[in-house]
Specification:
The protein has about 525 residues and is an alpha/beta fold. Helices cover about 40% and strands about 15% of the residues.
C-alpha cells in the first residue's frame, strides 16, 4: 500500500492510486445542508486535503470520485467557478503581502475566465469578479479558504502589523458577506477561532463545525476506518514487531488515538501520525515536529501558565469558543491546537485531557526544550539518565542530571517565579514517562509534586525562598504522606530548594518512611 504522506492534493492521491480514507459521504451532506462553514482542527489533521477534495468536487471532476461514497448519491457534479486561498503558503509579515496575495488570486481567477476588472482596491475587484463570473458562467462562485488564521498567528508579537492584517481580512470577509447572492458555497479552515475577525462577527449564516457531532470525524481516522483501510499494513507491522494484531492496535491507540470533537461522537486518530507510522514502521512522536505552534509556547512562557492543571481539567462550553489575538485565552488555544481534547461530559461541564501519549510527550518535550534552553534532542540523553537514576533510587545523580536542564534557563527570566521552575520540573518528569501529579490536594493543603516509580512514591515540596529543611518540614507537618500510606510502595519525602544565586536546583533533603 502506498501512503500519501505529505500530499494534500486530492487529485494527486487518486490519480497515483494512493490510500484515501473516504470522507465523501460526509462531504455530500455538507454541500446540501448548508452554505457557509468554518472548521477548526489542529495542524496536520487533513484540513488542506479536505479543501482540495471540495475543490475537485465543485470543479466537476467526476472521474476522481469513481468508487467513492459520493459517486453513489444524487450529487450532480456541476462545474462551478472555484476560488481557493491557501494562507499557509506565505509568511504574510506585512499587510501589503496579504493584500497582494488576495489581489493576485482575484486577478488569476479573472484571467482564467477572460474577465476584465476595472475596480482598483482588492475588495472592490473581488465584488466585481463575483458579479461578472455569475454573469458569464451562470453559476455562483465557490470560495475555499485554508488556514485563514495564519496571517494573524504570524504577527502576534507585532501589534501594528497585526492591526493592519485584521483590517485587510475584515474588508475581504466583509466583501464575501455582501456578495452572498453570487456565492454557492464557502468553506473556511483554521487552527484558532478569532471572534472579532469578520469571518465570525460579520457572517451571520456561518455554521461552525468545530464541535459538531455529525461532522466530528470529517477530519481524522476513526478506529473502524483504521482497521478497514490499513488492514494489510497492520498485519505486516504486527508480524515485524512480533506481536498480535490486537496488541499492535492497542499500542497504536495509545500513541495516536483519542481526539474527540464532540462528547457523544466517535474519537479519531491523527492521520499524519498514522501515515508516518506505517511509512516508517516505528512508533515515534511524528506530530510535534510539524504541529507545535511557536505562538502557543510563547504564550505559555509569557503568562507563566501552570502546566500541571492541564490533565483532567473541567471546563464549560466557553473553552470551545473564540478568543482574541490581542488577549488570547490559553485554555481555548490548548483545545484549538489539539493539545487538549474532550474526554468526558457531565452536568454541562467538559472534561479535557491530552488526546494520547504522542501529544502529551510532544507537548512536554517542547515545553522542557523551550523552558530549559536546551536544543531539541539533547535533552533526550538526559531523560534516559533520569529514568535510570530514579528507578535505581539514586537521587544524588538524579538531581545532578536534573540541574542540567535548569542550568540553561535564560538569564532574563525572573528568578522569583516559583511556578516557572515547578512547570519545568513537571514537564521533565512527565517526559521521563513516570506517573507524576502536581498540586495534589489533601485535607491539609496541596502537595507540589508526587512522582511514582514501580516501587517508590516520592512526595516533593519545593521552596524558592526557603530551605530544604523547611520544605521537608511542611510535608511532615501537613501529613502529606497519609493518603499514600496504604500503598505497598516505599514512600520518600523530598524537600527541595531552589538556589537563587545559581538559578538552579539547590540541595535536597529526604526522609524515607518505614515500610508498613
Amino acid at each position: 500500500m502506498r501512503y500519501p504522506l505529505g500530499i494534500q492534493t486530492f487529485s494527486e492521491i487518486i490519480e497515483n492510486k494512493l490510500l484515501y480514507v473516504d470522507k465523501t459521504a460526509l462531504i455530500h451532506d455538507l454541500v446540501y445542508s448548508g452554505k457557509v462553514y468554518f472548521l477548526s482542527r489542529p495542524r496536520r489533521f487533513g484540513k488542506s486535503l479536505l479543501i482540495s477534495t471540495l475543490d475537485a468536487l465543485f470543479c466537476g471532476r467526476k472521474e476522481l470520485f469513481k468508487g467513492l461514497a459520493i459517486a453513489d448519491t444524487d450529487y450532480d457534479f456541476v462545474t462551478y467557478p472555484v476560488m481557493k486561498l491557501e494562507f499557509a503558503k506565505d509568511e504574510f509579515n506585512t499587510a501589503h503581502n496579504l493584500r497582494s496575495y488576495i489581489s493576485n488570486t482575484i486577478n488569476r481567477m479573472a484571467r482564467r475566465y477572460n474577465i476584465e476588472l476595472i475596480e482598483e482596491t482588492y475588495n472592490q475587484r473581488f465584488d466585481e469578479l463575483l458579479g461578472k463570473l455569475y454573469e458569464k458562467t451562470g453559476k455562483k462562485v465557490v470560495i475555499l479558504i485554508d488556514e485563514y488564521d495564519k496571517p494573524i498567528l504570524n504577527n502576534l508579537k507585532n501589534e501594528s502589523v497585526l492591526s493592519e492584517i485584521k483590517q485587510v481580512m475584515g474588508a475581504f470577509y466583509g466583501a464575501i458577506k455582501s456578495m452572498d447572492e453570487y456565492i454557492r458555497f464557502v468553506f473556511i479552515t483554521g487552527v484558532s477561532k478569532f471572534a472579532k475577525v469578520s469571518i465570525f462577527s460579520g457572517m451571520n449564516s456561518l455554521t461552525d463545525l468545530t464541535v459538531h457531532k455529525r461532522y466530528a470525524t470529517l477530519c481524522g481516522v476513526t478506529e473502524q476506518e483504521l482497521e478497514h483501510y490499513f488492514d494489510f499494513s497492520i498485519t505486516q507491522l504486527a508480524a515485524e514487531e512480533g506481536i498480535t494484531k490486537p496488541q499492535l492496535l492497542s499500542e497504536i491507540k495509545r500513541w495516536y488515538n483519542g481526539y474527540q470533537f464532540h462528547p457523544r461522537a466517535v474519537g479519531v486518530y491523527n492521520p499524519f501520525s498514522l501515515l508516518s507510522l506505517f511509512e516508517f514502521e516505528e512508533f515515534k512522536n511524528y506530530w510535534y515536529s510539524t504541529a507545535t505552534p511557536t505562538f502557543l509556547l510563547d504564550l505559555l512562557q509569557d503568562k507563566q501558565y501552570d502546566l500541571s492543571t492541564m490533565a483532567q481539567m473541567e471546563v464549560t462550553e466557553s473553552a470551545f469558543t473564540s478568543t482574541e489575538p490581542e488577549d488570547m485565552d490559553v485554555l481555548s488555544l490548548f483545545v484549538q491546537t489539539g493539545y487538549l481534547t474532550i474526554k468526558g461530559y457531565r452536568n454541562s461541564r467538559y472534561t479535557l485531557d491530552f488526546p494520547n501519549y504522542e501529544v502529551k510527550r510532544s507537548f512536554f518535550d517542547s515545553v522542557a526544550t523551550r523552558y530549559s534552553g536546551l536544543e531539541r534532542g539533547v535533552g533526550d540523553v538526559y531523560i534516559y539518565d533520569l529514568v535510570d537514576h530514579l528507578n535505581a533510587g539514586n537521587l544524588d545523580d538524579f538531581f545532578k542530571t536534573l540541574k542540567t536542564f535548569f542550568a540553561n534557563i535564560p538569564y532574563e527570566l525572573a528568578v522569583d517565579r516559583e511556578k516557572y521552575y515547578q512547570s519545568l520540573f513537571y514537564a521533565i518528569i512527565t517526559m521521563v514517562g513516570l506517573s507524576v501529579e502536581a498540586e495534589v490536594s489533601t485535607n491539609e493543603g496541596r502537595i507540589d509534586c508526587v512522582m511514582q516509580t514501580a516501587d517508590t512514591i516520592y512526595i516533593v515540596e519545593f521552596k524558592l525562598n526557603g530551605t530544604k529543611e523547611a520544605a521537608l518540614q511542611q510535608i511532615q507537618d501537613k501529613k502529606y504522606a497519609q493518603k499514600y500510606l496504604r500503598s505497598d510502595k516505599a514512600i520518600v519525602l523530598l524537600g527541595v530548594e531552589f538556589d537563587q544565586s545559581t538559578r538552579n536546583i539547590g540541595d535536597y533533603l529526604l526522609h524515607q518512611l518505614p515500610v508498613g
